[in-house]
Amino acid sequence: MRICDNGIMRTALLAKLASAFLAVMLLAAAPNAMLALRETGSTLLFPLMALWAQAYHRAHTDVTIAIAGTGSGAGIAQAIAGTVDIGASDAYLSDEQLAHDTMLNIPVAVSAQVIAYNVQAIGDEHVNLTGNLLAGIYTGAIGYWDDPRIRAINPQIAGDLPHETIIPIRRSEGSGDTFMFTQYLAKSAKSWTAGYGTLIRWPKVDTMEEARGNDGMVDRCSKLEGSIAYVAVSYVPQISFGDLGYAALQSRDGEFVLPTPATMSAAVAAAKIGADGRALLIDRPGKGAYPIVSYEYAIVRKAQPDAARAVALKNFFTWAISPSGGNDEARFLSALDFVPLPADARAVSERLILEIH
User: Fold this and answer.
1) Contact 118, 226 (CB under 8 A)
2) What is the per-residue pLDDT for 21?
3) 293-301 vs 86-89, strand pairing mode
4) DSSP-assigned letter for residue 3
5) Residue 261 · residue 275 · CB < 8 Å
6) CA-CA distance, 12 to 331, in Å (whole number)?
7) Higher-confidence residue: 354 or 240?
8) Looking at the whole model, is its pTM more than 0.85?
9) Could you report the per-residue pLDDT of 72-84, keeping only the tens digit for each?
């Protein structure tokens, strides 16, 4: 396995996540729960939300949180429709979605995206990739792993790049990961004209495949030699078990960087967060800034159907963003490669939480 240096640690983490998910499902079905919150959306945030829901219920036994990884698009839509209490999303709300002053997007953590690939000939090295190269792959302009443009920026592995068809994989459903990936392409590659969003009209590429959810992206990539996929950094444990590699991406400053707490934090430090919680962390300038980073958002209605639900949501979010609660790096975030909210973002989130009533 290329990615996982400690297979035992990753195995234990996956077992912990499976246990947390089962516990959350059992809690959601508990007949004696006084108040049950419903969450759906981002599959990137899903592993962390599973740990949060279980830990929060242990400390607050009168509240359960039922979670579902359905994609950010579904999380946003269902939160706006009021069919769930919390929509989880890697994408912030649009101007139009915020225009009626009924919804909030509350930053709860910082995450990133990796570009995974299945090219066994490469070995343990990380392939260097750029926004321009990825745009070429996802438009069909670059079709083989030994393309001269890829070889030119990978002297460390150029001899091992095979003449193998590249199979780009995209998400099939509305996805915050698609929002992040296509926003990176739109900002870093002039050749990318398809725009960005949770759903886009993808260029027609004969070799392109699709998959649902981050787990589906990892599974599809692991089964297709030569494939490439954009995947949440929180799925690095699954990527490692799929024997996949992931790329070092070119930053705005021209460096090739990997997603680490330091490079993710460098991207956050280079961006200003708005009073409404929105911030553009994609392709930020600055030394060591990883280019595909985002806040993870809880999408929630300001006006709740009753006071008890409003209080429960405010209490949960306050715990989730606290360094001694859900943003505890050692307890929750680092094992899944999330980064805590910086102080300015936490202050914005605290103000937004107070708007729930």
Assistant:
1) yes
2) 52
3) antiparallel
4) S
5) no
6) 14
7) 354
8) yes
9) 999 999 999 999 9
